[in-house]
Amino acid sequence: MKERGLLAFTTGALLLIGLIACMRPEKPWPRPTGGETATITAHLGPEYDTVAFVSLTLGQVHKVPRMAWDLEIHSVEGGYQVWTNAAMYAFAAVMDSATWENVSDASGIQGWRCDLPDTAALPVLRYGEQMTFILDRDKGGIFYTTVANRYRKLWLMATEQDIEIKAYTLTGEPMGEWRILRLPEPQYLSLDRSGQVVSVLPPWKVELMLTRYVHYFPDQPEAFRYYPVVGALVPKGLRSAVVNAAQVTFEDFTYANLSQVVWKTQRDAIGYDWKRYDFDTGTYLIDYSRYYALEVETEQYYKLQFIDFYDESGRKGSVKVRYSAL
Fold this sequence. Notes:
The chain is mainly beta. Helix content is 6%, strand content 40%. The strands form five sheets. A six-stranded antiparallel beta sheet has the order 7-6-9-10-11-12.
């Protein structure tokens, strides 16, 4: 597996938690002209403890620690879709209320599921319904090293106006309550901050997300099928395409070439394999045989290529991208 080597290096590593970047309103930005190439760098940290939200249009990066939230709540038709934090390698196990009530030991829990880029671990919660599940906030046990802070029992109730959430430890001690209003934009909450929503997204439109997430490897042994990787996710609703550099170079790719690409709507269409792990050198190597086209608005496109994964001191987790408007 291309990133299996990551597992041996991350266990027990020191954690570097970044500060949340300053947020300020941005003025409307005109569509950039094509031809000029710019670079943008997002520092995720050598242990990938930062999630970076990128705007190519503005040339800005907004960063948050990847443990800043536990649940992401989206309003959908007829209810709510709750996502866990895949950047934390979180897993959830849904169960009926009677079973949920009696659970006090995580070792016997079955049915753990994790979020994949386009598939939530949890089902949609419809108006008038309740849901009970156990959340493993950090399956790797890197951030949350004790049972008391790693696991949460969660009870959810949905109405047309809001979603109510209650959190408990595995032994039943109350850990917080939330009432999240139904809003068009996603709401984030940390299970360490009772009653509050937390600020995660920047005030501007996100066009690319650089983060740790979970990829499904169906041909691998069970322990490695749902495996954390570091890569690029495209926000829902945007399209991206992989371009073969042997057919047309990055420099020669123009607006006219867009008719030849195969657009995809999968969030991980860019994904993680623009780099590969070299076991001989113990480093990641960039794959320059490919680059990407990204549609961020109707008739607004970029071409982008990853050109580095290390900072000037040789520390991994510093993603550098060159890009140009088309």
